[in-house]
Specification:
Blueprint (H helix, E strand, L loop, with lengths): L8 E3 L15 H5 L2 E3 L10 E9 L3 H13 L4 E9 L17
Parallel strand pairs: 3-4
Antiparallel strand pairs: 1-2
Length: 101
């Protein structure tokens, strides 16, 4: 099996690490900072794995998922996280899909 590894999503500008600030952006705030690297968009992916180091609130994952599925609506998207941190104030159910996806 061959893996097709591409850096499809880029940040337009650097941001402060979420764990270093009291003001965490939500997915809608983050979407505006992400763009698809169009030079790598072809062939259109059918299965996309998103790799991230730590899942805390799920905001970055939801934002990246929205950007990718807006550009590649027929793709299946799976998140892969090295670690998970659950702050006491976060409802973990809030970032789980409710539409079966």
């Amino acid at each position: 099996m061959q893996c097709d590894i591409r850096e499809l999503v880029l940040q337009q500008s650097s941001t402060v690490a979420a764990h270093e600030t009291d003001s965490r952006p939500g997915p809608a705030d983050l979407v505006a900072n992400y763009v698809i690297e169009e030079t790598l968009a072809s062939p259109e992916p059918q299965l996309i794995f998103v790799f991230d180091d730590v899942l805390t609130t799920g905001a970055h994952f939801r934002a990246v998922k929205q950007v990718l599925l807006s550009r590649f609506p027929s793709a299946e998207l799976i998140g892969f996280f090295v670690a998970r941190r659950v702050p006491q104030t976060v409802d973990v159910e809030a970032f789980l899909p409710t539409d079966g996806s």
